[in-house]
């Protein structure tokens, strides 16, 4: 694979190539895939096209000869989710860089480039989003081999997908002349913003235009040089944020103040559209940004009537539709070209050709301050997860699942008391100065203000029902005294 490519443009010693480093950007909320994808648990963490998540699929594409362990750039709220999902697919030694605030793709890639360049400035970054789908991975790797050669020669390389339809949801690349020094790679004539329907149809008819995949292949030193050239303020802020970063367990936290000063700008605007070293590798390996429900329908396996169905679904006289449910039965009768998606707390019904507009609904939910806009009833924590079951005046009921060997923080509440009923496993409960084993079908009461902690000392998950009562039941009514996950929020 990439380790066998020529070393054109590399400053590495003869016979020794610098490695290729997968850099995975895990940001954004994927609002067009609401109600499944939300800020608290966005689309890259869901298994939307198989048994593994989009993040896991992305990481595993980089587990080939000549590549290092990945660098993942994400926000701090998702750090434990990412670490767990990497462990689940046996990916080790990944570097997880935490952004204190979202600043778009250019600062994120710059942070990864600075971190990688500390060890090897000639290392080639393979930058990709965590939430894209690829149908033909061998073809992707063949295109990557070409891109790596061009990157080692000093180019900023992207992948251009051969368009199959007049897509208005993607940006385009106008393919330029073939590069004589790197066969199979072309100069970029220009980048084009997402077009309207008429323009997209013209591009398709004219030829020579490619979908912009958003993947980049570039030497760490080259990217930093171009950032310094075109966005010197961004360069300075991110360099300082990396220099002042702190280690937090297995994570690397960028400095808050420095990174917050970095301009909010995409890599396209910061570098790709301005550099005179932009190159493109054309490809047709079934790439999709999985940006909407109609895109998922297009990618997924369909029945004889053209339907995609996931979960507890009953269809009668339905065609060309996407129907998904996380639990409750969804029955559809006599409809066509619909998207129907049901979660535990929300249902989406849309014409399939309006799927790109779901984000407008999400914005209305945000404007109305509806929690369903960004939060799931199922909330993930480093020790497991909890699910809100029901709530009313002065009470709330949750299901809590704690993984083997994990523990909640030592904490207390000023406004609520709690009653825990264990329904599976055995819990070790700290209450004040005492510790008690609470087994299946047993319970324990935690008075308001009592210092307490829940641990799972066993080999199977502990599942319990928590009944909260009090005048205020918000998650911010937690005072932590000790936490093995170093959380302060």
Could you explain the architecture of this structure?
This protein has about 500 residues and is α/β, with parallel strands linked by helices. It is built from eleven helices and 30 strands.
Secondary structure layout:
Blueprint (H helix, E strand, L loop, with lengths): L19 E7 L27 H8 L9 E5 L3 H10 L6 E5 L5 H13 L6 E6 L3 E2 L2 H16 L3 E6 L10 E7 L7 E7 L4 H10 L2 E11 H11 L1 H12 L2 E3 L2 E3 L2 H5 L6 H6 L5 E6 L3 E2 L4 H7 L8 E3 L2 E4 L5 E4 L4 E4 L4 E5 L4 E5 L6 H10 L10 E4 L2 E9 L2 E8 L7 E3 L4 E8 L2 E5 L2 E5 L4 E4 L5 E4 L6 E8 L9 E4 L7
Parallel strand pairs: 1-2, 1-4, 2-3, 3-11, 6-12, 14-16, 15-17, 16-18
Antiparallel strand pairs: 4-9, 5-13, 6-9, 7-8, 7-9, 8-12, 10-11, 18-19, 20-21, 21-22, 22-29, 23-30, 24-27, 24-29, 25-26, 25-28
Helix pairs in contact: 3-6, 3-7, 6-7
Brief synopsis:
By secondary structure, the protein is of the alpha/beta class. It is built from eleven helices and 30 strands. The protein is globular, with a radius of gyration of 25 Å.
Overall form: globular
Q: Terminal Cα separation, in Å? A: 43 Å
Q: Which CATH class of the largest domain is shown?
A: Alpha Beta
Number of beta-strand segments: 30
Uncertain stretches of 5 or more adjacent residues: 3-14
Whole-number count of domains = 3
Structural class: alpha/beta
Radius of gyration: 25 Å
Largest sheet: 6 strands, antiparallel
Q: Looking across the biggest beta sheet, what order are the strands in?
A: 20-21-22-29-24-27
Proportion of residues in extended strands: 25-35%
CATH topology of the largest domain: Spore Coat Polysaccharide Biosynthesis Protein SpsA, Chain A
Say which CATH homologous superfamily of the largest domain is assigned: Spore Coat Polysaccharide Biosynthesis Protein SpsA, Chain A
Mean pLDDT: 93
CATH architecture of the largest domain: Alpha-Beta Complex
GO biological process, one term: GDP-mannose biosynthetic process
Protein name: mannose-1-phosphate guanylyltransferase
GO molecular function: GTP binding; mannose-1-phosphate guanylyltransferase (GTP) activity
Family: Belongs to the mannose-6-phosphate isomerase type 2 family.
